[in-house]
Amino acid sequence: MMRQHLNKTVIRELYKEWLKWSIWLFAIIIILRVLHWIGDYFGEVEPAIDHFMYFMNESSPIFMLVVGIMMVFTFLRYYTEHGLTRRTYFIGGAIASLMITITIGVISMLLPVIEGIVLSLFGIHYPEHLQFHSFGYWISYFLLFIITSWLYYIIGWFIGHVFYRYNWWKGIFASFFGFVLVMLENVINGETVTVYGVHFEGLSLSIFTSIIILLLLSAGMLVINYRLVKDIQVKMK
After folding, report:
1. Using DSSP, how many helices (H) and how many strands (E) does the chain show?
2. Rounded to 5, what percent of the chain is helix, strand, coil?
């Protein structure tokens, strides 16, 4: 049944389009990275900058959140106008978004190598706090990077679907719920979140445990997204 709605063309076109969008993301990040290295070199940045993957992990989820919202308003009507089912749209969006998060993760793992080579040409070496961890650590962090970014896409997708399907106040509620999920993700990943003076302490979980919890949360949000889109009334021109 799923294979009937598994349209490889949809997946490929979405992936290619989002890959184009990600070029802007990497361009901005690299420019900011260069400015940070210049500031660090002249002692104007405190504290010293983090590893590129940590640097990228702050931006990739936000990018995917925006992609999730734009997916609804950019592609839903387009695909239905071309005779594709809502299930095809849903499956294509879910798979293509996972593929683009993996691609961003792979590029983000390779860029530090290039960064190190370029820095060495200028006689600049990575500070001690940027030294590489074990191979196992980076594999785990890579998986966490992907799942976190994908979850943000699904949250953005959810917000977009609610705004599209219902009135604006339900969309505001969906945005608030999405904000709660983002807070929950931060807490699961060990970060302390402060909201109006109230502190939510980050959990001390292993990366593997965080990945499992975020996977379950992503699966639950995918189910909700499918329920929203399976009989959604598409607004034509």
Report:
1. 7, 2
2. 75, 5, 20
Q: How far is CA 52 from CA 24, 64, 112, 130, in A?
A: 17, 18, 6, 9
> pLDDT per residue over 13-70, tens digit each?
999 999 999 999 999 999 988 887 777 767 655 545 677 888 888 899 999 999 999 9
User: What is the DSSP code string of 126-182?
Assistant: --GGG----HHHHHHHHHHHHHHHHHHHHHHHHHHHHHHHS-HHHHHHHHHHHHHHH
Separation CA 108–CA 57 (nearest Å): 9
d(C-alpha 62, C-alpha 92), whole Å: 21
99 vs 37: CA distance, rounded Å: 30
Angle between helices 168-188 and 207-229 (to 10 degrees): 170
**pLDDT digits 0-9 by tens, 153-173:** 999 999 999 999 998 889 999
- Predicted confidence band of residue 138 (pLDDT cuts 50, 70, 90): confident
CA distance 39 to 35: 6
Which of these, 86, 53, 64, lies nearest to 18 by C-alpha position? 64
Residue that is written with structure tokens 């070199």 in the block: 41
Span 217-234, pLDDT tens digits: 999 999 999 999 988 888
Instruction: Kindly give, in sequence order, each residue whose CB lies less than 8 Å from that of residue 23, ignoring residues fewer than 6 positions away.
Output: none
Decide: 13 and 100 in contact? Cβ < 8 Å. Answer: no
Percentage with pLDDT > 70 across the chain: 89
